[in-house]
Amino acid sequence: MIILKYIISSILNIFNKDIPKKDIFSPDINILGTHFGIYTATLDGNSVKQLIVNSTQDMSHIRVSPDKKWITFTRYNKKDVNDLAHEGLGYEQTEIMIAKIDGTNSKTIIPSKIGIVSANSSWMPDGKSLIFVSNNNWFRKGQIYKLNLMTFRLSRIPTPRFLGVADPHVVNDKIVFTAIINNINTLWIMQLDGKNLKQLTSPVLSQTQEVEKFKLGDYDPRISTDGSKIAYMRYLGEDNWHIIIIDIITGEEKDISPKVTHDVIPQWSSDDKLLMFGHVDKIDLSKTGIYRIKPDGSSRKQIPLSINKYFSYNKWPNFFPDEKSTDKTKIIYRAVNYPKILI
């Protein structure tokens, strides 16, 4: 109870404070030293617009609210030797942010704390609450929390307490998430009230080298709009990440990636006709960027976003809600000019 009161007090103290102006640069300021940005564009690669840029802090997990008036994202605070805070250092000292859809009025709503993860926020279907992952509990295990943005009430989603969980996504009354079982990352699904819990995947994978940066297995699941399928990325070891689609009812999996590739963070269009994802090519960086593909694995192609010398590495894409999959469908994404953080 004391911890909960402290969290709520911290939220109330911080919610009405804007980020200091020195941290967020406007487009007319020289951005030669800038490393991290949030952008919008259309699915055909046009109408690129800068929302937020930051000289020292990475931003990821960018999602648009159902009414398209707000965004939420994760911001990083743990710094490397170059005084840059980014995803490559892990998720400790992360914070949950919101901002207006034009990038203004950025606010911290879950503050960072040393040793604590607060990350991967997304909107509940009604747009009045966020869910996110945090280990700010007695057992320091990843749990999923819901924050009501109107009342600031914080509640735990009732996943099994013996599981450390991550990567939540909600569609209607279903929530999908990941959990480590026997040293492998696996997918689980249940109703928001905790009923009908089901483990969806248990991939049989072999460690390919002595030390992996990530656990082998499945990450960042996203439920299709019609609630019938889930797209996610599977880590096969070394630098090999695939996009997989699973039928929730039958459990049948379909791998839509090439044999050896680095495809990550799949997202469904609102009409379920397209997936969008990030791709990394460390040999030819011009091929690193955001791609689109049909759920059957056909029509894979890179989205020709404007490339400039400041932000060349685009990742963490997401569709705007309810805009289907036309060339003019709006997308939002994170861009960086710091190639060291490419996973």
SSE map:
Layout (H helix, E strand, L loop, with lengths): L1 H14 L20 E7 L6 E6 L4 E6 L5 E6 L19 E6 L6 E4 L7 E6 L5 E6 L8 E6 L5 E3 L8 E7 L2 E8 L2 E8 L6 E2 L17 E7 L5 E9 L2 E8 L5 E3 L7 E6 L6 E5 L9 E5 L7 E2 L10 E7 L10 E7 L7
Antiparallel strand pairs: 1-2, 1-24, 3-4, 4-5, 5-6, 7-8, 8-9, 9-10, 11-12, 12-13, 13-14, 15-16, 16-17, 17-18, 19-20, 20-21, 21-22, 23-24
Question: Would you give an account of this structure?
Answer:
The chain is mostly beta strands and 343 residues long. The protein has a single domain (2-341), classed as TolB, C-terminal domain (Neuraminidase, 6 Propeller). 4% of the residues lie in helices and 41% in strands. The chain is built from 1 helix and 24 strands. The protein has one helix at residues 2-15, and strands spanning 36-42, 49-54, 59-64, 70-75, 95-100, 107-110, 118-123, 129-134, 143-148, 154-156, 165-171, 174-181, 184-191, 198-199, 217-223, 229-237, 240-247, 253-255, 263-268, 275-279, 289-293, 301-302, 313-319, 330-336. It has a 4-stranded antiparallel beta sheet with strand order 2-1-24-23, with no helix packed on it. It is globular and about 45 Å long. The termini are far apart.
Summarize the structure.
With 343 residues, the chain is mostly beta strands. It has 1 helix and 24 strands.
Q: Give the topology string: H per helix, E per strand.
A: HEEEEEEEEEEEEEEEEEEEEEEEE
Shape: globular
Q: Radius of gyration from the CA trace? A: 19 Å
CATH architecture: 6 Propeller
> Could you tell me the mean pLDDT?
87
How would you describe this structure in keywords?
343 residues, disordered N terminus, 4% helix, mainly beta, 4-stranded antiparallel β-sheet, globular, Neuraminidase, 24 strands
